[in-house]
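Protocol step 4 of 6: structure prediction from sequence.
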Amino acid sequence: MALLDRAIVRLLPTVPRPIVQKLSERYVAGSELKDARAAVRRLNAEGKLATVDVLGEEIATEEDAAAIVDAYQDVFADIERCGLDSNVSVKPTALGLKLDLDLCRDNLRKVVEDAAARGNFVRIDMEDSSTTDDTLRIYRELREDGNHNLGFVLQAMLRRTLDDVRSLADLRPSVRLCKGIYVEPEEIAYREFEAVRANFVRALEALLDSGCYVGIATHDRWLVDQGRRLVAEHDLGPDEYEFQMLLGVQEQLGDELVDEGHRLRIYVPFGRHWYEYSMRRLQENPKIAGYIAADTIGRFLPTRDNGRS
């Protein structure tokens, strides 16, 4: 299957851009804020929450990063004006992390403060391992400065994740826990499927034991079942945790969670960099290409859930 995934990635640059756009419509809300608004309204009507991500690829200047800050402020204003049930997710590199750490911190502070003024929340996305230390450092600094309306993401594939849980437990952070999609060196990341699953469960247990609010972010039915078990064992109410999924992925499983009374938040990316975002995600982890291909085929042919996602 890995060979097939890589073959799909190699073929993607030859696929006409309009066809890629058509395929991506299920996973990216669109290029404009109005597209994200429509997607969030639909999700809210289905009993689901949302987190909006402004796609920001190829940030090369301070002006580029400032434009992303402005875009997030527009998102918060739109959420408030339209009465949407949504927060936002922010990539540090889109705010200038690769340009300058202080620039990124200042830009993130502006986004967080605007969110606080409107009673909203910011999730700091986690990117590849080269950004992990700086991302967690910025998170702690902003929390210690009195900003409480923000959380971050941990990736179960990284061997360091349990240590990160312990090192930040004093803040009782809000954490999205996911498997992780980046291809990392074996010395810092688990490569085997079951090893990642096992570390996900260990990290989830540690987070819940620490009293953290956790967004259990997975499309893996087995891990969803483990999440159900652990929140029940910790006797958590429906407002003390949530499940999270990507737009357009495993919608039937998501509907099941909502029907059972769980909170479910859907990741809604939008922006004019949809093509670069799609290509980068696929190139970082060819397995994603296989997921999309299988899911696309599954719209027309019934297939068994193999728990890969």
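Step 5 (inspection) to follow. The longest strand covers residues 264-270.
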